[in-house]
From TrEMBL:
The keyword Isomerase applies. This is 2-(1,2-epoxy-1,2-dihydrophenyl)acetyl-CoA isomerase. The keyword Isomerase applies. Keywords: Isomerase. GO terms for molecular function: isomerase activity. The lineage of its organism: Bacteria, Bacillati, Actinomycetota, Actinomycetes, Micrococcales. It comes from Microbacterium trichothecenolyticum. Belongs to the enoyl-CoA hydratase/isomerase family.
Length: 258
């Protein structure tokens, strides 16, 4: 049983695929528990150097499975438990020194925005659409949306999405800074794989630590961030990979001056 999420790890690359296409990859409790499980499995695997987050079907993720919650008689406590399981996975990914790229097509709604923004780099297909829709059904943001969305596009624009029934096109999402790139639908998978391969073929650990420093920095004092930066770059400088790359850079610079 996949419980709605597939995981494949090969040659240092973890591919996490949301897999409830008939339900637009909306999150129910089994899928939430699986998300948390996958997050801990991937981030604790020292062989993994990069992550791709994608989805099967026409939509990336339409948020929580509100229809299932309503028809099954779920309580508020059960909805909270589902959100907390997903939150644990989001936090685990966000705090890990592991770069993640998301491949997004079709609808991204509600909590799907938070799942998408768990990734450090988002590539959207030209048919992607982004909308909140929380307040339309009397609910409030979850899955990190109240934090990750304003961090990505600013508080004012985040409130525009949350307080109005506004849908962003892929082009608008790019202009707002919600996504990093927009590509043709047929180019989405190759482009995301190219990005992940760039990380794996480069200074993989350094890319991972860069994502961790930026993510952690939002919730700490400037002094704490500076101390972390100093310790992290010092530790990186002593690694064999950094020594080799720094030496090659120094040699190239010397040659260029001669």
């Amino acid at each position: 049983m996949t419980d709605g999420i597939l995981l494949q790890v090969e040659n240092g690359l973890a591919r996490i695929t949301l897999d409830r296409p008939a339900s637009l990859n909306t999150m129910n409790f089994p899928m939430a528990a699986r998300w948390r499980e996958v997050a801990h499995e991937v981030t604790s695997d020292t062989a993994v150097g990069a992550v791709i987050l994608d989805a099967n079907g026409p939509a990336f993720c339409a948020g929580g499975d509100v229809v299932a919650m309503a028809t099954s008689g779920s309580s508020g406590a059960e909805v909270t438990a589902t959100a907390e399981a997903i939150h644990d996975g989001i936090r685990t990914f966000a705090e890990a020194p592991l770069p993640m790229v998301a491949a997004v097509r079709g609808a991204v709604a509600g909590g799907g925005l938070g799942l998408m923004l768990t990734a450090d780099y988002v590539v959207a297909s030209e048919n992607a659409r982004f909308v909140s829709r929380y307040a339309n059904i009397g609910l409030t943001p979850d899955l990190g949306v109240s934090t990750l969305l304003p961090a990505a596009i600013g508080q004012r624009r985040a409130l525009q999405l949350l307080l109005q029934d506004r849908m962003l096109s892929a082009t608008e999402a790019l202009e707002w800074g919600l996504v990093a790139e927009v590509v043709a639908s047929g180019e989405l998978v190759p482009r995301v794989e190219e990005i992940a391969r760039f990380w794996l073929d480069g200074a993989t650990a350094a890319f991972g630590q860069a994502t961790r420093l930026v993510r952690a920095g939002a919730g700490r004092t400037f002094a704490e961030n500076l101390a972390d930066e100093a310790a992290t770059i010092g530790a990186a400088f002593d690694t064999p990979e950094a020594k080799a790359r720094v030496a090659a850079f120094a040699a190239a610079s010397a040659k260029g001056r001669s």
